[in-house]
Amino acid sequence: MIRITVLCLLIFQLGFGNDMEWSKTGHRTIGEVAQQHLTGRTKKALKKLLNGQSLALVSNYADEIKADRSFSKFGPWHYVNYPADKKYTEVTPSEEGDIIIGIEKCLEIVKDRNSKEEDKVFYLKMLVHLIGDLHQPMHVGRLEDKGGNDIQLQWFGRGTNLHRLWDSNMIDDYGMSYSELATNLPELTKGQIRFIQQGNIYDWVEESQEIANELYGSVEVGEKLGYAYGYKYWATLEKQLQKGGLRLAKVLNELFS
C-alpha cells in the first residue's frame, strides 16, 4: 500500500511539474531579483519568518498548494479579469476574490503584530507569488476568454493558447534557469530602478492590463507562432520579470521597514 501511494505521488508530482514549468522558472527569477534589492532589515525579518529559505525557493508555494483542495478558495487570487476599457477600480470585485484582494489580505496579515507566526509565514509566501502573477500580463486578461486560455494557437507546431504561451511556452523554449535569467536581465541605474518601483498595486495592475490588451491584438485564433513572435516579445517578458522582482522588493522593504 505504501509503495502504491509513493508511486502515485511521484506520478502526480511529475505531471504537476510539467504544467507549472514557467511558473517555477518565472517566479523564481522574480524572487531572485527581489532578493538582490532587499534592505538589511528586510533580509533579517525574512530569514526569521522563512527559516532561511530564499524568495526564489518559496516563490511557487501558492501554486504547489493547489494540489490540496482545502486551499481551493485561494485559486481566484492568482488573477483578475475585467473589461479592456475599464480600470480595476471601476468594476465590482469578484465575491470570490482576485489578485488585488489577495495581495491586500496578505499585507494585512503579515504586518499585523497580533497575527500568528504560522499565518504570517503562509501569507508571506502567498504575497511573494501573487506579486509575480500580477506582472504576467495574461493574469490581467478578459473574463470572456479566461485570460487568454480560450484563444487557441500553435507554438512551433504544438497546440497551446495565449495564456499558456506567456505562462510557459516562451520561457521554456528560451532554455535558461531562473538564476541565469536573473543574472542576464538588463542592467539598470538607480534612477531607473526607482522609476520602476514607483506606484502601487493599483498602478501595476493597470500596466499589466495595458500589455495584455496589446497581446490580445498580437495573435489570431489558430495562428502558427514561432521565432518571430518570440523575438518580438521576449524583451517584454524580460521586463515583466524584472519589474516583478524590483516591485516585490519594494513591497517587502516597506512591509518590514
Automatic annotation (TrEMBL):
InterPro entries in the cross-refs: PLipase_C/P1_nuclease_dom_sf (IPR008947), S1/P1nuclease (IPR003154)
Any GO MF annotation of the entry: metal ion binding
Alphabetically ordered keywords of this record: Disulfide bond, Endonuclease, Glycoprotein, Hydrolase, Metal-binding, Nuclease
A single BP term in Gene Ontology: DNA catabolic process
UniProt KW Nuclease keyword: yes
TM ranges: none
Protein name as annotated: S1/P1 Nuclease
Source organism of the structure: Arenibacter palladensis
The organism's taxonomic lineage, starting at the top: Bacteria, Pseudomonadati, Bacteroidota, Flavobacteriia, Flavobacteriales
